[in-house]
Amino acid sequence: MERIIGLLDLDYFYAQCEVVRNPSLKEKPIVIVMPSIRENSGVIATCNYEARALKIKSGMSLNLAKKLANSSTIFINADKSYYEEVSIKVFEVVDYFCEKVEQVSIDEAYFDLSSHFGYDKAQEVALKIKHRIKSELGLTCSIGIGPNKLIAKMASLIKKPDGLFVVYSNQVNSFLLKHKVGDLIGVGEKTEEEFKRHGVVNISDIHKFEKIDLISWFGETLGSKFYEYSFGIDSRVVESNREKQQLSRLMTIREDSNDFDVVVLNVDFLVDLLYKKILYFNKRFRTISLIIVTDKMDTITKSRTKSADISSVDELKEVSRDLLRSFLNESTIYVRRIGVRVSNFEENSGFQKKLFDY
Ligand code: DGT
Ligand code: CA
After folding, report:
1. Tens of pLDDT, residues 205-235
2. Domains of the chain
3. Considering the entire predicted model, what is its pTM?
């Protein structure tokens, strides 16, 4: 199976959250401030693109930002707990489509698209994720797709904001050769300066040297890493670090149907797949839902919660079949897509709290 990784980064995140909460702010320069205890001072957390056009940016002092602002610029104190709530909802959407999701900050996560088989499907999934985040939460994000984390991250910046950019595995070298060393993950201003001292400005310049040279400049770990990155090699895996709220599998039926004997074959097939996923994530659950997308593209969900954990694939099949039977008995609707979902999981690691504490 070909490895395909995505990186999702929300656009001007805190500022976009404020516009969602108060749409009258749209198109005005919005600046989000982390206030300090001293009156009238503080630092800029982020700002939208209208404010960036005035040269205001993250990390700048409030005083300087005020000097650069125009009369329509709006300064808002950061409301971290609200942004955290929004962030949770965003990454639940990603969880819905991907088994492995690694959140790396409040507004950024890697996700593994390999199981969707091929770049075309991966791109389709990324578009669905973007569409759902936009329609359900009103937010735009940028997604990069590539054969590893390095390329996915670099690709996410190409079409920002509201972008999607795919680097196929056979395009990695030409993609990298268009970039400067400063664009590699982990190369900050100081490292970039050090590269420059050795005549390295573009990624292609690294190839004039041996790995041992980079090790002598940056030490074993960083030197090897930058050398490998310059050839597009990055073996870091996506490490799932989000407690999943639900697991599901969905599929489109070969032909729209309201015949139990036909639809149930699809349900049984999905339950078998879903059960493998449940074992993989080592989950215990009590609620089972059947998701039916009708031939009119309406979505109907039927759920049942048991008083004890579901303990076997047969029990899961039995409940899913029951839900299907009662749905088809009650309606004459034709089923186009069908899904089985389990939720109401036992334990919660409290991971998200840790992440937001950074
Ligand atoms: P983008 O991704 O360039 O469209 O803009 P943002 O605002 O999403 O920037 P990003 O992804 O680097 O950071 C995500 C959020 O993290 C951002 O909305 C506010 C917060 N943040 C970023 N940089 C700083 C900083 O220097 N100080 C503080 N306090 N917060 C920051
Ligand atoms: Ca961002």
Report:
1. 999 999 999 999 999 999 999 999 999 999 9
2. 5-11+81-172 (3.30.70.270), 15-79 (3.40.1170.60), 179-230 (1.10.150.20), 246-345 (3.30.1490.100)
3. 0.74
